[in-house]
Amino acid sequence: MGAGAVVTVRLSTGDPAGVAVVTLDRPERLNAIDLPTRDALRSVWRALRFDTSVRAIVLTGAGDRAFCTGLDRSAEVPQPDSPYMTDDPLLQVGPKSNDLWKPVIAAVTGMACGGAFYLLGEAEFVVADPGATFFDPHTAYGMVSAYESMLMAARMPYGEAARMALLGTAERIGAARAHQIGLVSEVTSPGGALASALASAAVVAGHPAAAVQGTVRALWAAREAAVAAGFAQAPHLIALGNLPPHEQAELFGARRREFRVR
């Protein structure tokens, strides 16, 4: 980054040994991802490919309100003027999308919604604070939940992924329910998600790196054919189903504030 650049993704390494912590650092924006943050994440993932001292990674968000709330709605995302071409700004924001085959453990505190699922969908497993919530607002704002739902359908039962996507902002999945359905592997004590993720990462980092990375690659191989087939349909579904941006903005401005946590 150039002098004076705003740091929106922090990378720390070596504590515990062999573990890197990647932190989304925009708490004032609920760790929403704008384009500079997207680019910073991609740079971090690609840099970690070459850092042999790092053998496991923890991904988290700054503050206690949100892990990540997806794409920052204030971000300017230019699109080609054609129904046959769409540029999804978050499509290559995750570790697997950047050819990183070191294990990633997500530590979730607060909200994780929408575009956060690009990151959670490419993590090996998720550890959550008891106050964590998960939801997908797309349909409430007149947008197709395509890539996000496809990734979540690979992490939880179909009915749960469908319910989350279709109910939009009206309902959130609490940490306990997320654990029941397999989205979350552990619910910690309050404030303990990061420490738990670090403890697991330290164990993994102590194993021979080649065996660990081969296992990560094997696990992803079991999923990637289905994900790739779904992703191939996503641009067309989004182009057909999304409302025009100004209508989306109207729905966002009139959004309901109340919601149910289950």
Automatic annotation (TrEMBL):
It holds the Pfam family ECH_1. GO terms for molecular function: catalytic activity. Transmembrane segments: none annotated. Coiled coil: none annotated. It comes from the Bacteria. Belongs to the enoyl-CoA hydratase/isomerase family. This is Enoyl-CoA hydratase/isomerase family protein.
